[in-house]
Every structure is written in C-alpha cells, then in structure tokens.
Amino acid sequence: MTSLLESFVNVAPYINSLTLDDMAVTVTDTEKYLSFVRGKQVPQLVNAGDAILEGSVVNDCLKTGKRIIKKVPAEVAGFPYVACGIPVKENNKITGAVSFVISIDKQEKLLSLAEELSSGLEELTQSSQLIDDGSEKLFEVSNKLSIKSNESNVHIEETDGILKFIQNIANQTNLLGLNAAIEAARVGQEGRGFGVVAQEIRKLALNSSESIQKIEEILKGIKESSNEQSDIISEISLITKNQAEAIKNINSSVQQLYAAINLIVEEAKDLTNEE
C-alpha cells in the first residue's frame, strides 16, 4: 500500500463526520478494496480484501484515470445512491481510487412527491383554464341576455304608445257615436236607421276600449316580468363577472405554483443526477 492510499485509509473513518450528507467511503488499490467505511444510511456494500467489482465507480476510475460520478438505482443495492470516485496517482501513476457513496433515498422520495404534485397541478391548471373560459362565455351570454331584455322593454314602451293612440281613437269614435245618436234622436223617425249605426259605432268603441285595457294589463304583466328578468340577468352578470375574475386569480396562482413545483422537480433531479 502506498503512503497516499494509506493516508486515505486512515482518514476515511472521519470523513462522514465532516460532511453534511451521510456517506460511505471506499479506498482501493488497483486490484482490491482496502477500506469501506459505511454510513448511517449506507450499508456495508463490500469488505476490505474483496476484488474490485466490475462496473463500479472505482473500477471505472482506474480504467479511465478520470473523475467518475454514477447514479445507481435502488434495484442494484436495495437503495438508490450516487457514487463519486477519483483515481489516486503517485508519480503520475494510478495506484488506486477513492469514492464516496451517498444515499439519495430521501431525494428520490422528494422527487417522486414533487412529480406527483406537478402532475396534479397540471391537471388542476387545465381544469381551471376550462372553468375560466366557461365563466367568460357565461358572462358574455349574460350581457347579451341583458341587452335583449332592455330591447324588449323598449318595444313594450313603444307598444304602450300605440295602445294609447288606439285608445284615443276609440274615445273619439265613442264620442262620434254619441253625437250621432243625439242627432238621430233629434230628427226623429227619419234618423232611426242612422241611430242604429251610431249605436253600433259606440258599441265597437266600447269593445275596443275593453280590449285595449286587457292588452294593457297583459303588457303590464309582461313588462313587470321583463323588469324582474332584467334585474336577475344583471345580478347573474355581476356574479359571473366576479366569478370570472376570481377564477382568473386562482388560475394565475395555480400556474405560479405549478411553475414553482416544476422548479422543485428540477432541483430534486439535480440532487440525484450525475454532475
């Protein structure tokens, strides 16, 4: 064993206490493991004297002469970890390797939770957007209904004017019939036929007045219903407007949260990926 490798073997038991992450330390020469100091969460993977495992980080360091970082899934050793190794050189000759094995079980769980949360927020964002679009359409429909309701009220007002005009004609016709009846009575037997016509004119005028009154009552009811409908539509428009604004705010907050979660996902990936 070279002096530098011996120094690494002597220092290995103290390294875990000097770092924030729990880790195991491996020291090898070019053929076998010289030391393996396990961590609190990293079990004993190899023993001193064991031959270097093919495909391990230290094996790759010895072969390439370069710093190697590998992410190892849980299926290999029963827990996920990241191993970082460097070749040890003395007099420009590789005499061994040193590696740190760091458990990333907590990071993997964090990544899994973050990805699940990200997926849920993505669905929530899409649903929120659909509700937002629906609220805007509902607000537009409410505005159109309000416009149509106001137009109906205008038409009813115009109808009132026409009815008043017809009522005025009926009154004048009734007055004309009355005058005709008076004139027929004055002329006696000769105006008898004229009196019958005058009576029918008055009867028609009275019937017209009664019909106009009924129509006015119907229109009054329609107008009252239309006003109530207009008030309800206005209330619905206000509610849908407030709802649309609230949903927009919620949608914006969800999108910000979604972006934050995605950032957490990326950070969690960085914790577990090779660098």
Automatic annotation (TrEMBL):
<dbReference type="Pfam" id="PF00015">
    <property type="entry name" value="MCPsignal"/>
</dbReference>
<keyword id="KW-0807">Transducer</keyword>
<protein>
    <submittedName>
        <fullName>Methyl-accepting chemotaxis protein (MCP) signalling domain-containing protein</fullName>
    </submittedName>
</protein>
<dbReference type="GO" id="GO:0016020">
    <property type="term" value="C:membrane"/>
</dbReference>
<feature type="domain" description="Methyl-accepting transducer">
    <location>
        <begin position="157"/>
        <end position="275"/>
    </location>
</feature>
<dbReference type="GO" id="GO:0007165">
    <property type="term" value="P:signal transduction"/>
</dbReference>
<dbReference type="InterPro" id="IPR004089">
    <property type="entry name" value="MCPsignal_dom"/>
</dbReference>
